[in-house]
Design goal:
Elements lengths: L7 E8 L8 E9 L2 H11 L3 E2 L2 E2 L15 H4 L29 E6 L7 H8 L5 E8 L8 E9 L2 H11 L3 E2 L2 E2 L1 E4 L1 H5 L7 E6 L7 H8 L5 E8 L8 E9 L2 H11 L3 E2 L2 E2 L1 E4 L1 H5 L33 E2 L5 E8 L7 H12 L3 E8 L8 E9 L2 H11 L3 E2 L2 E2 L1 E4 L5
Antiparallel strand pairs: 1-2, 3-4, 5-7, 5-10, 6-7, 8-9, 11-13, 11-16, 12-13, 14-15, 17-18, 18-20, 18-23, 19-20, 21-22
């Protein structure tokens, strides 16, 4: 098909598990010897109809369109994996790496029978899906699903529509959790300045209205309202964060606004504990009473106290903890919990992944903890998962040795 446009040095179709003869994933790559041949092919074949389907032909984002065979650009052979060395979190999908920007969502609580193709078909109505995959045990095609996956869109508008319309939707008897991919959130820059948290906001309050209220105390560098799924313009979660240019103005706003009425609701204004915990320039301050949520942590469970195996939980019940090491950088607390919940169900009480600075958006440290309600599940988890492959890495699972 592509030879009429120039010398083809490489062609391959992505298949499940990267195996010859396996089921096609519906996409492939062609490498030309010259840029001119590549460009002629794109101009002639993009949006053309082949076999009843309209092709998409464009520059390969993985290498920025450089026409080199895979064995020259990646140091390996052309075979042994149809994904061409793309950084795949479980080896089943065809995620593009490199140049083009992609906008991802995490999809949790999937039915075990949902495949990557089902997932892709589910999200196609919202825009151009350039990648979809379901995490499986050992990262093998056809292996048991972990109950979560990722979808990548070509535009942020498509991603936002998907989150707004699919989060909470019932799919095969399970209510989906659809949110921004935690890995993308981790890349968001931290706003400059001295932050205060503002809670119990009226649902109708926008970030601009919040900024207008607080800027009467001094220059505001950033204001944001937390929304469901982290989507701009999404439904408010009733809290936000304001950053001031200097600490004196921030403290004055807290002193004057905490406990005041805003459209019938008594707002809480205090130092942002996320910034305080990271040592961000806010001069300290006593920690407020625990709340149902923390600033910029809409998806992370409340941090549990450090625990010993057979420690008593807050409700007096015993909890049994494991340490999980050598985690992929992509794995967040939800994914970690899903891995173990797929085998031990409601016996999994808590899961967390350690991050730099203890922040939700911080970079993973590559390890986490999981707590169980029974010693049997705890021991079975160690026996089953120690040395197992999760997201392409062989994890270490053992008893949590941390002491109070």
């Amino acid at each position: 098909m592509f030879k009429p446009f120039g010398k083809v040095v490489y062609a391959d179709i992505a298949t499940e598990g990267g195996q010859d003869g396996a089921r096609s994933k519906g996409w492939g790559r062609v490498k030309f010897a010259t840029p001119a041949g590549r460009q002629r092919a794109i101009q002639a074949l993009n949006q053309s109809n082949v076999g009843g389907r309209q092709l998409e032909v464009r520059l390969d984002r993985q290498d920025g369109g450089v026409s080199l065979p895979f064995n020259q650009q990646q140091g390996g052979s052309n075979r042994g994996g149809n994904n061409g060395g793309a950084q795949n979190y479980n080896g089943n999908g065809g995620r593009q790496g490199g140049g083009g920007q992609e906008f991802g969502v995490y999809v949790g609580n999937l039915a075990w029978s949902v495949s990557w193709q089902d997932l892709k078909d589910m999200f196609k109505p919202f825009g151009n899906v350039i990648y979809a995959d379901v995490a499986t045990q050992g990262g093998q095609a056809g292996a048991k699903s972990y109950g979560w996956g990722r979808v990548k869109f070509a535009t942020s508008a498509s991603r936002n529509r998907a989150i707004q319309q699919m989060n909470g939707v019932n799919c095969q008897g399970r209510n989906l959790e659809v949110r921004m991919d935690a890995k993308e959130n981790a890349a968001r820059p931290t706003p400059a300045g001295y932050a205060c948290y503002c809670g119990n906001l009226p649902w109708s309050v926008t970030w601009q209205q919040m900024k207008d209220l607080f800027k009467s105390f001094g220059p505001v560098t950033h204001a944001e309202i937390a929304t469901q799924g982290g989507v701009e313009g999404g439904k408010s979660q009733g809290w936000g964060v304001v950053h001031f240019a200097n600490v004196r103005d921030r403290d004055q706003a807290i002193s004057q606004l905490n406990g005041t009425d805003w459209d019938g609701r008594t707002i809480e204004v205090r130092i942002d504990q996320k910034q305080a915990n990271q040592g961000g320039g806010n001069g300290g301050g006593a920690r407020s009473q625990p709340r149902p949520f923390q600033p910029f942590q809409p998806f992370q469970p409340q941090r549990a106290p450090q625990f010993n195996n057979s420690q008593r939980g807050n409700n007096g019940s015993a909890e049994y903890g494991i340490f999980v090491g050598n985690l992929s950088w992509d794995v967040d607390w939800k994914m970690l919990k899903d891995v173990f919940s797929s085998q031990f169900g409601n016996d999994v009480l808590y899961a967390d992944v350690a991050t730099e600075g203890g922040a939700r958006d911080g970079r993973s440290k590559g390890w986490g903890t999981v707590k169980f309600s029974s010693v049997q599940s705890c021991n079975a988890a160690i026996a089953r998962y120690n040395g197992a492959s999760v997201a392409g890495r062989n994890i270490e699972v053992r008893l949590d040795q941390k002491k109070n």
